[in-house]
Amino acid sequence: AAQDGMSSPSLGFKPVAVSAADNVVVPEGYRVQSFIPWGTPISGDMPAFTQNASGEDQARQVGSHHDGMHFFPLNGSSTDGLLVLNHEYVEPRFLHAAASGLALDRNGFPQHEDGSRDTDQVIKEMNAHGITLVRIRQGEGGEWEVVQDALNRRVTAQTPMQLSGPVAGTDHVKTKYSPEGTMTRGTLNNCAHGVTPWNTYLAAEENWAGYFANADADIDRRQARYGIETRETGRYQWHRADREDDMFARFDASSKGASAADDFRNEPHAFGWMVEIDPMAPGADPVKRTHLGRFAHEGVIFAPAVEGQPVVAYSGDDARFEYIYKFVSRQPYQAATADGSLLDEGTLYVAKFNEDGSGEWLALAPGQNGLTPANGFADLADILVNTRSAADVAGATKMDRPEWGAVDPVTGQVYFTLTNNTRREEGDEHPANPRANNNFGHIIRWQEEGSHAGERFQWDLFVIAGDHADSRDLAGHSLDNDNIFSSPDGLWIDPDRRVWIQTDISESVMNTGIFEVFGNNQMLVANPETGEIKRFLTGPVGQEITGVVTTPDQRTMFVNVQHPGATTTEGDFATGNFTSHWPEGGSAIPRSATLIITREDGGIVGA
Ligand code: FEO
Ligand code: CA
Ligand code: CA
Ligand code: CA
């Protein structure tokens, strides 16, 4: 139902076809170029990209596996600003030149015969993670370029960070590095992001658990509920760098010392948070805001801030049968003074979707919804460190892998992608997650009752993704050649209310079997009123499309291409016969990069 003054955004382009080609396709009348691929120099002595670049070089270059992203204009400009983007993880077989002569483990990480890892290679992996902040400017000819600037900066898996909010200073996070429990080092597996009403950047820590080893006989729920089991090693084996240094040793969380202040048994508890970075303060430590909860944070989306009202932020936990959360600040938003301290005091809620289309927010706070000492939750810090367990006890609704969220700036409706869940069994369907063996995913949305800070809402499904037969749009029709898609992940609503949808079909199944019909991962755009959806872009082979934002004038769009060539097989790595050579082509190794998309007539992208 249209409200007064509400515009329905135009989707004024001809949709592109699905594609399995190793290139990027945009609609007629549009241009696209690749920009700042992994390894592009941004600071210091500007070390040029080579596959042989050192670990320290990598800290002055753009990281790998581009993901969530925002453009912070300088002085409101649409041609000059700071591009800030996450780097989710690394593919070691592309990150390191093959010439080191070391054997590769089953995940492709080079290691010595005794199982130790080369220290510089580990440093390079750590520095390829994190966040890039880089000033970019559009020249007279329309081309964008990197500007060497004091704001250019890399935040990595080594960067010192503050802990803030209820968990800071508690026993949960005391380590040999920070016996007071107030600091930690680095951020890991930064997937999507958020932008606060006071214009800082939040990077989400998603699949951080895979970085830790813990050989203790008993793993408590602060680790086990997040996927850390008794094991000598994790995927990255950073603790096996061949140097005695806490920077590496901390990834072994086994109890080795007399107390927590002597070892790193608590190191994993300093991960799983949202990390605030002030892009305009390059000297300031990033801050982990613990009141937003600890889980596999995909990202965060803020409701539009209203003077005198609480700040509200939504975040999904991307794992099968996990939950959607929201944080409501205790103090009201006041534009003149707002800062990150608003995120340190408030209430964390988890969503319960009722079968009748209503929903409620369950507070994860001491004494509420069963979160009592008798049930094993000592206090607020204990609830937050164990957010998943608290949500279990509260009785939240188990979702099909919550990924990105977005808020319609006019209606206030909140959208979330639920990417897929092949482990949902027949009999466990729920109207909010209606398919058993959910291969293709769906998008849910809701309208809060009263304000965003309210405790009740009404929800519906915006689209059930899938092929021609197994899908449903808002009007109740099946998707067609112009818009079939699978595995919605990235999501963004532009100022004109276009709903941009990005897909992440896993490289393990893309372009095979039931997924062949969708081709490569892609980006579509939807009209939130009519539910019309059109395919806007297809990406190269093996990648996912993730991260999207425009300049304030909406004439330039930035989109990230993550992990091109991820479908390359073991044998193909050995011969250099990668499935993708994007963006450079020829025999080049594939590199994650940012796309710059414009219209030939200079118009608004998507209109
Ligand atoms: Fe990193 Fe949930 O995608
Ligand atoms: Ca990803
Ligand atoms: Ca994602
Ligand atoms: Ca995903």
Automatic annotation (TrEMBL):
<dbReference type="InterPro" id="IPR008557">
    <property type="entry name" value="PhoX"/>
</dbReference>
<dbReference type="InterPro" id="IPR006311">
    <property type="entry name" value="TAT_signal"/>
</dbReference>
<dbReference type="Pfam" id="PF05787">
    <property type="entry name" value="PhoX"/>
</dbReference>
<protein>
    <submittedName>
        <fullName>PhoX family phosphatase</fullName>
    </submittedName>
</protein>
